[in-house]
Amino acid sequence: MSVSSHLYVYYKLADGDQAAARLLAFQVLDAGKPWCDRTALQRRPGLRDGVSTWMETYENVWDIGALEHAINAAAISSGLSARLASPRHAEIFEDIPVSLDFGSIE
Predict the structure, then answer these.
(1) Alpha-carbon distances of 33 from 45, 88, 91, rounded to whole Å
(2) 10-54 pLDDT tens trace
(3) Which of 2, 28, 53, 64 is the most exposed place for a label (fewest CB within 10 A)?
(4) DSSP secondary structure string, 31-60?
(5) DSSP letter at 1?
(6) Torsion-angle region of 91 (φ positive above 0: left; ψ -120 to 50: alpha; else: beta)
(7) How far apart are CA 15 and CA 23, in angstroms?
(8) d(CA 64, CA 70)
């Protein structure tokens, strides 16, 4: 049984950088499209201390390594990384199938 992997990348942006960063973030998402079924740009509602948290989502990823390489390069070349109030942090999640044998989880 194949398990779908998803990549979530989150970071913080100062309130004054959000308008410019939006276009740059979409360039990063575009760089990831060849490696997954769906991309999305999300943000946590509201500001905390003048900063908001944004998240790029990459669903049903075919090659995590290639995707991470592509989007990390795009974050640098687009200028997004230079505008961040915190480093980009990536997390990989996998779907849990309904009929999972919990004895086989690694």
Answers:
(1) 25, 18, 17
(2) 999 998 888 889 999 999 999 999 999 999 999 999 889 989 999
(3) 2
(4) HHGGGEEEEEEEE-SS-BTTEEEEEEEEEE
(5) -
(6) beta
(7) 15
(8) 10
